UniProtKB/TrEMBL annotation:
It is found in: Cytoplasm. Its main location: cytoplasm. UMP binds at G54, D74, T135, G136, N137, P138, F139, F140, T141, T142. The gene is pyrH. GO terms for biological process: 'de novo' CTP biosynthetic process; UDP biosynthetic process. It comes from the Bacteria. This is Uridylate kinase. Pathway: Pyrimidine metabolism; CTP biosynthesis via de novo pathway; UDP from UMP (UMPK route): step 1/1. PANTHER family: URIDYLATE KINASE (PTHR42833), URIDYLATE KINASE PUMPKIN, CHLOROPLASTIC (PTHR42833:SF4). It comes from Pleomorphomonas diazotrophica. Residues 8-216 form the Aspartate/glutamate/uridylate kinase domain. GO terms for molecular function: ATP binding; UMP kinase activity. The keyword Nucleus does not apply. ATP binds at K12, L13, S14, G15, G55, R59, T162, Q163, Y168, D171.
Amino acid sequence: MTELKYRRVLLKLSGEALMGDRGFGIDPKVVDRLAGEIVEAHRLGIQVGVVVGGGNIFRGVSVAADGGDRTTGDYLGMLGTVMNALAMRSAIERLGAPAVVLSAIAIPALCETFTQREALRHFAANKVIVFAAGTGNPFFTTDSGAALRAAEMDCDALLKGTQVDGVYTADPKKDPTARRYERLTHQEVLSRNLQVMDAAAIALARDNKIPVVVFSVHEHGAFVNVLKGKGLCTVIDG
Ligand code: UDP
């Protein structure tokens, strides 16, 4: 039997990942596939927390760019993450694992409100936790929300699902000579300004000694492979 590398992880999925080939919103087939991988990890005995982004629905910065109110735009973005989280919860439950949405903003008709103590109880009760509404504050991102929840929940790693299978020396879609890094330190990501997550998220992961593993969401089975210490990815640690 393959050894599992991590016991409790925080998976960050961007809103874009849930959109599939559509230009906007949620593709249920993509949500089902990703939920399937989460359920597989849960069956292996891993405690999985998921932070979902909201960029497939709304981004506060685009409101500000159009001369609108950034703070209101950011709350709209956070509401977008709640939509994604509810879709993800339904898919996970349909596939047979117990799941709960904990939102940083109280919306009691739809989901529970995040507190660290409640979240720990849900993990103890063997549920997958979908964290919604990022940090609950404007001017932040769901990457920072993911690093924050990973720290609060004492996760062994933050797994960031992206468009490519790791961090590259250049954009591999544009530059054929681009190489994938096997390992980096948090500090290298910050000092070289590598586009992995925003700097606040990487700094929070560094300060709390949380490894960040970057892998491709498009690669079927990649999430579970990473949990087993296999597959293509970049590990950011140390
Ligand atoms: N957002 C926010 N505070 C947070 C997390 C998210 O204000 O703690 C807002 C922000 O407007 C952001 C949007 O929600 O643009 C969607 O989140 P994000 O851009 O991180 O989603 P992703 O890129 O992962 O899909």
